Amino acid sequence: MGELALELGVVSDTHGLFDPKLSDLFRGSAFILHAGDVCGQEVLDRLDSIAPVLAIFGNSDTPPLSRRLPPWRTEAFAGHRILILHDLGKPERMNSAASALIAREKPNIVISGHSHQGRISIYGDMLFVNPGSAGRKRFKLLRSAAVLSLSKNKARAALFSLESAEPSRVREAAWQEPTAPADAPKAHPHPLHRGRFGSG
């Protein structure tokens, strides 16, 4: 990306399974973002052995996880505002709750899960990342996870298959910051990481 980038691991819908390939994929990440349906503290513990984890709960999570984790969170890294929520819908057809949250939080990167379908896209002025499911195989959907690379005013997201012998890149997209309005919220750069999250 032309300058030293901050890397974040992105995963979702593990449903109680920790795939050992995530250790290689996320090695060197500053943080790991989990977009819900964790379904087991052991998954978070294994991920936390790689890098600190920032997670939310999804519709399949139950107590005690769903009491400890928020339903959404906004994190700030390297000048980027990252909203993590479980169920977005689609970038071009968001559900009403996601649309309202995005309007309020004003992220430039949105991470979601729920669909088990990995997708990286740019819609409007935002980068949308759905890492797909890193849990057990479901129908013909690809098991996958993602890596997000951040630098000032730029971001690159890459989707990786977990079904090959080693994680293999299957899709990626690059985002560059458009000219921002004067009243746009300012994100605190890493390492002055700051987050906010919803109540359960």
Keywords:
mainly beta; single chain; 200 residues; 4 helices; Purple Acid Phosphatase, chain A, domain 2; six-stranded mixed sheet
Number of beta-strand segments: 14
Number of helices: 4
**Oligomer classification:** single chain
Topology-level CATH name: Purple Acid Phosphatase, chain A, domain 2
Uncertain stretches: 188-192
Which class of secondary structure composition applies to the elements? mainly beta
The whole-number mean of residue pLDDT values reads: 91
Tell me the strand percentage band.
35-45%
Q: How much helix is in the residues? A: 10-25%
N-to-C SSE string, H for helix and E for strand: EHEHEHEEEEHEEEEEEE
- Termini separation: 37 Å
- Roughly how many Å is the radius of gyration? 15 Å
In CATH, the architecture is: 4-Layer Sandwich
Please tell me what the overall shape is. globular
